[in-house]
Each structure stands twice: as structure tokens, then as C-alpha cells.
Amino acid sequence: MRTTSLIAAILLAPTGFIQAQESTLRSEGWDARPEGREATVPDAAFLIDAPVDRSTYTVGPRDLLAISVLGDLNLLYELPVTPEGMLVVPTAGVIPVLGLTLEEAEGRVRERFLRYYRNVDIHLTLSEVRIFKVYVVGDVPDPGPRVASSVTRVSELVPDPAVFSRRNIVLQRAIGDTILVDLTRFSHTGDMRYNPTVREGDTILVPGVDEAVHVYGRVFFPGSYEFRRGETLSELLEIANGYRGFPSDAHDVVRVSRFVSRDEREFFSFSRTEATEPKGESFVLQPFDAVYVPGIGNYKEQKTATITGEIVYPGTYPIRPDTTRVLDLIEMAGGVTPDASLGSAQLRRAPAGVEEEGLEQLGRIPLELLTEEERQILFIRQRADDKNVVIDFEKLLEERDEAYNLTLRDGDNLLVPERREGVTVLGAVLEPGIVEHAPGRSVEEYVDLAGGYSEGADEDDLVVLKAKLGNRLEREDVHVVEGGDTIVVPFEEEKDWLAIFDTTAGVIGSVASIILAIIVASR
User: Fold this and answer.
1) Going by DSSP bridges, is the β-strand pair 212-217/203-206 parallel, antiparallel, or unpaired?
2) Quick one: 212-293 is in which CATH superfamily?
3) What pLDDT, in 10s, does the model give residues 205-242?
């Protein structure tokens, strides 16, 4: 009662009395700040994502408003809006502001002040947004009330997993209006119109997901989309491309597949322009439609080859497949250095056309049951990841023999190692390593220089790996050993005869069981 009388006295009092009474009001418990204002809540629902629009923001209970009076009289107030939607101003009285925009509320406060004061300018601003309660119901794991603020958007209150509806959410306003929310469109395009802010008393209804449409191929966001009644092909493509148009490698055709019965389908075809303009804008989608946007194969894909080793400018260079040749690549790289070993240069090419499944099955069979050819295939597969293309680089570079000037493929790797004059002897020898090369020296002489054969050496299976052509020669086929060649002396293979017997017996037993079963079945 005393406070009410005091306010009435202030309304009729002169300016000097008003200023003198401000301290008295505070001493009697008048506090313009709502209780607990200093406390902050570190939650996304209370963070502002854009400046408040004075022309659209509506004032509600617990908003904190700042009023500044400037001129002959200078006053500043920070006042909360009461639960009834009133603004109680000590020097101007009780002003109803519920549901007004900030611009409208400022006009009403100005009108009230100008009744009592002259030569003043009145401003009203929003100091702090209000918090309140809304309800999230429907197909959500924890339906019920949620704490929100006047800047909280629907996306901050609805669960994120795809099992919940994102495109047919209904925002029911306390005043009776309804808004259909599309959070998928918002997340793909950033269009805030489809992710509105909430107000006190709102109810967010999340329905169950039942029907869908599908988008495949070259769009920015392919996948399954919850069906939204009345949506057109053009609108769905806008969402699937995030308002950015089609990817650059999308084909100029859009196909729609539609079920006309349980098993029968009907197909529609559009150009990209048709799909996004009047024809697509009038094509209304139906549940379980599928939209296909094919891509252009190998669209503007760069083809390259790499050259490394004793090269002036080693690196990766662009090529035209089946047009750029080996000499072209070497010339682009500045040529070879004086230390290059042309006899040991190799063109490595990734293998193609290998039946991996068959080779994997081959690897599961015991070695003892493989033929010599099968064992060689398995050995090559396990030891070599690249395929070497046979080229005589000495004839190619020194004699310009076009027979070796092969065309390149994407991913080819040309390796030119440093010149090495010696002959490498490896395997079952006493002193494996590099032996000095001498013209006319035989294979046996190189083995002797490497200490001779060691115990367990398999002399009959000795092979020579030719550096120049990268091929493999048996002992009897070697006529000349050249610098850079490698002599390999294998060890004799130790065979586990007991394991061979057990494996063979198992196979024979399995075959016998099959034969016996056939005989019994025939009888």
C-alpha cells in the first residue's frame, strides 16, 4: 500500500522531487533487475544467433527493458515486464506492453513520458531476453516441458537423430496459430524461415516418420528424405543441393521413378533446367518416389604419370592417356642426369585384370598340392605389387628406337636409378653382396667371388635378374652377365613329407566319402 501511494505521489511530483526520491525507492526494496539476473546459463537455447529485429520481436513477461530519458531530465531504468505484461515505470506509471513489438513498446513509453515532461528524448531497448517453458511432444524419447528463451529456435529443442521427424514438425502457438517446420531444409540451406523461434506456451509436435522419398546420384545431399505433402520436384532438388545448383559433374538429366502399383513403376525424365523451373515446380512428389541424377564419368579428371630417380626435374606430370609417350615424360622432366642407369630404369604400371578372388583361393591351398606354375603365380603375387613394363631404355634414349617409346597410362611410375656397375649376388652364398663387374665373366665366377655356394644351396634353380629388361633368366639361358644384373641362388626347399601325407590322405578321404554317398544314393 505504501509503495502504491509513493508511486502516485511521484507521478504528480516535480522533477527535483523525483530525483530526490530515487534513493528512497531503492532503500525500500524497489529493484528493477529480476532476481538472479547475474546468473548465466551456458546453453545454446539462450544464445542469440542474430541481432534482435525491433520491428518483429514481441515483448513478453520477464523481458528486461532499458528506458533512457535524455534532455532536461536524464534518467535510466532497467525494468522487467511483469507476468501480466506490464512495465512499471517509477516516474511514468504502469504501461501495458504485452505482445507489442519493441518499436511499438517504445512508442507507448514515449507517449506516456511526454504527458509529464518536455524537452526529453525517450529510447527503449531490450537488455535481456526472457526465459519460459514450452512443450515438446510426439515421437520423441522424453516428451514434456523444455526451458527456452525468446531467441530459442525449434532445432535446439528437437532431438537430432534421423529416426525422428525433421520435415513435418508442427509448431502450435499458444494463440492458436500453427507453423509447419522443416529442419532438413534449414540444415541444408540455412533458411531461418523453416526454423522459427518459440514463444511461451508453444507446443512442438514431432510426428512419427512413415513415408519417404529418395534422392540418388550427383546432388550435394543425396539420401532419404521424409515425405512432405505437396512438395514438388523443384523444391526437393533445392534442398538436396542446398540452394547451390547442381554439382559441376552432374549429368543434364533428372529421372523420377514412381510406384503405380505394388511392383510396377512409372518413369519420368527431365532436363536439369526443366526439373528446377515451371515443369519441375508443378511436378508434385508422391510417397516412395525416387529421384536419380547421374554423374558424368571421369569428369575433368586429371591423368598423371610420375618420374623419379636420376632425373633433372623429378615429379608428377600431366599426360594424355594413349597419346603421351615415355620420351615425352622424360623431356617434360628435363631429361636424365649423367649418373642415371638406363639399363636399370623401369616403367612400373599398376596391374589390371587380375582375378583377385581366384588368387586368394590359390593362397589357401597347401603349397605341396600346387603345381610349379601355380606356386610361381602365388610367389609373384606376394612379392610384387607393381607390374614392370619391359623397355630397353638404352635403345630408347641413345638410339631413339620408337619400338620402346610406349604410350603412358594414368598412374604410371618411371623409375631411373643411379648407375651401379657391379653385379649383385644374393641367396645361398657365403658372402652375398655386390661384386665388381668385368666383361666376359661367367655366372659361376661371380658366385665364386661371393664366397661360393653355402650349405643347402639349390644350384640347379639359380636365376639371373637382368637389369636392362627386368626379365628373369634360368642359368642355362644366361649368355652375358652385365653390370647391374642380380644373381639369385635359392636354398633347397625342405619338404615336410608327413604334412604332405596327412594333407593328401585328407583329400583322398573326402573324395572317397563323396563317391560312397553317390553309390548309396543311387541304390
Assistant:
1) unpaired
2) Outer membrane lipoprotein wza domain like (3.10.560.10)
3) 999 888 999 999 999 999 999 999 999 999 999 999 99
